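B., you asked whether I could sanity-check this one before it goes into the benchmark set. Here's the sequence:
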Amino acid sequence: MFTDTHAHLSWPAFTGDLEAVLERARAAGVNRIVSVATDLATARDTLALAAEHTGIHVAVGLHPGEIPNVSLAGMIEIAKLAEHPKVVAIGETGLDYFREAKNDHALRQQQRDLFWAHLVLSKERRLPVIIHSRDSDADMLDIVKAHAEALPKDWIPWGVMHCFTGDAKMAFECIEAGLMISFAGILTFKNSATMRDVAVKIPLDCALLETDSPYLAPEPHRGERNEPSRLPLTAAVLAQLCGVSVEEISRATEANAARLFRW
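And here's what the prediction gave me:
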């Protein structure tokens, strides 16, 4: 059995056939899915989906790409939604400098402030945080390390680096700060040597699996709409890299998900 720790089931890509998508996931052994919000609309919609389907859990948060549309009222509503029993994490949050104007210091500061607000909320609600980082690793790590210093020593792990694409040095810095490392379908790509190196080097008890559906379909489906039923393809590559069975990957990543999400 597997847990897809990061998918976006409320997005339009799944509007026409979500029931079939969920049925294929169950048939593939994916028994839990954490459906992740990126704004207020997807947070509300994802909670509605979780109320209708067993096995769907929810993360609520405001993606850094939502700036400059983020407001205090929006963050207050996220905090309120985080009280729902189906919510198992805060996020997707973090930093993303990929699409911004070069050296837009004001925008970067807004992103850092929003990220910190999510980390505070995760501490208040005692919920793990799902972290996004793109072209922003140095700033992200500075904030993560500062936050980790103020956390209770028994709250490990307290978050996950979603769709990890960094190198081994960054992975071990994240692990040292109390985070898990999540591998998506990129791990199956032929040009993913850096990520495969990370998969070999980090302890298996720090690894999670995700699809980031509808994005990042693994080989041999690269370029297609992704869905949770394809998670075992990534698990198979991770097993091959680590020199263990797929069953061992399942056992380890399920145990890791249970530790992170406290179920």
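One thing to flag: The chain has a mean pLDDT of 95. Otherwise nothing jumped out at me.
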